[in-house]
Specification:
By secondary structure, this protein is an alpha+beta fold. It is built from four helices and eight strands, in the order αβαββββαβββα. The strands form two sheets. A six-stranded antiparallel sheet has the order 2-3-4-5-7-6. The protein has a two-stranded antiparallel sheet with strand order 1-8. Strand 2 and strand 3 form a beta hairpin. The termini are close together.
Amino acid sequence: MAIMGNGIRAGLAAGLALAIAAPAAAQQAQGNADDRVEVNAFTPTSVREILAPFGNGVTIADRQTPEGRPYVEASFGQLRINMFFTACPPNQPTQCQGLYMLAFWPKPAERNTQNLAQAAGDFNRLYEFSKAGVSVAGEPFVARYLISDFGVKRGTLRREVTNFVVLAQRFNQEVVNPPAQ
């Protein structure tokens, strides 16, 4: 993957700005005080509250890991994001300070795993604030970690989720299903 040209960077910046501005503008027009509510821990309930303003644009399901730890699955159209609760004090599962967002795709049948891993590595160099890779099973993924150590506003977290959705869609277009060359 070559270094992005100025035109592509401008297009990405404009697309990201629109993706973030649309929900934000709608919320500001309504005077949404909910954006200023502090989130001090990540739980299934707090994540549902963060995602609520996305309305019908997101489908939310509570899930559990094989070990019985809860997580939230949020689907934005075809994009599925798993949100895992981390940095939880011992015996305090409702006081988790970290949220690990993970989007993954089935292994593309037509892609060589080594080439896919190289494309994910290139993606990491362009988007240092995320982690992209290929699992042992050959599934491409992109992830991002959020924290709420001293509290963070719901509106800020919504923007983080929006940014991650845009990033995951870009990962799909550039790494998982790139245009034929």
